[in-house]
Specification:
By secondary structure, the chain is an alpha+beta fold. Helix content is 48%, strand content 14%. Helix 4 (142-160) runs antiparallel to helix 5, helix 4 (142-160) packs across helix 8 (228-247) and helix 5 (170-189) packs parallel to helix 8.
């Protein structure tokens, strides 16, 4: 993959991304291929983080033709199952709220390229193929980014607190605490922080140290066992914090 002085790319990841970019290019119609998320922001944890990409293509993709490509990567690379890619035809780059075919969790789904994704690409996207991001994808304004983040907090994340049974799972505790913390940072100053930076801020925002340590251990690849009772208590604490944080001062 191309050299990028801003990020360190493990060889195993570079091999996977090089093969993906080469395969897409050989299939024809590739305009540009870009990395966002943890890798582009310098917070990638091998075996834990996903690889998040956006492919801009000349025409709508044939999902049936791309499934074998993605499955081959899953079979050939240890990290292949964590590669996610949204496919955006050039004709619809001005309508990114429209759902686009997105390979994620080893299947195609319809997802939109959110303002957060566009902001990550705009501020630090890694170019695997094609021209710079700014010449292909429309920029996101600070106001548009803030509106989207606020709506996600008030809608999705607050709604999640009404489903208490989910909060015994590590996945939902980690995802919710980090996403809400990162969203609050964006609303505060328009910035984008990493998951590691979010973990470092959680304690100052009122999350108990034992919950922060639990989240940090999983992010570091060293999860600690919890009893079911402790999971219930942790879920109650995390859910309460998310609710209070979302409803806090505007």
């Amino acid at each position: 993959m191309p050299e990028d002085g801003r990020v360190t790319v493990p060889a195993e990841v570079a091999d996977l991304l090089d093969e993906f970019a080469t395969s897409l290019g050989a299939a024809g119609g590739l305009v540009g291929l870009y990395v966002h998320g943890s890798l582009a922001m310098g917070d990638f944890r091998i075996g834990i983080s996903d690889l998040d990409l956006v492919a801009v293509v000349e025409r709508p993709v044939d999902e049936d033709e791309l499934v074998p490509l993605h499955r081959r990567l899953v079979d050939a690379h240890r990290l292949g199952s964590g590669l996610h890619c949204a496919y955006v035809p050039v004709a619809t780059v001005g309508d990114l709220p429209r759902p686009h075919p997105t390979w994620t969790h080893q299947a195609f789904h319809r997802r939109r390229v959110s303002p957060v994704t566009r902001a990550e690409l705009q501020r630090g996207g890694v170019v695997l193929a094609g021209p710079p991001v700014a010449s292909v994808l429309p920029a996101v304004s600070p106001a548009e980014l803030a509106r989207f983040v606020r709506a996600e907090l008030d809608g999705y994340w607050l709604g999640l607190t009404r489903r208490p049974w989910l909060w015994v799972r590590d996945f939902w505790v980690d995802l919710s605490l980090l996403a809400v913390c990162r969203s609050l940072a964006t609303l505060e100053d328009g910035g984008l922080i990493t998951k590691a930076e979010a973990i470092a801020r959680l304690g100052d925002l009122g999350v108990p140290a034992w919950v922060v340590d639990d989240v940090r251990a999983r992010r570091d690849g060293d999860p600690q066992p919890l009893s079911y009772r402790d999971r219930v208590v942790r879920g109650w604490v995390a859910r309460g914090w998310v609710r209070s944080a979302v409803r806090g001062p505007r």
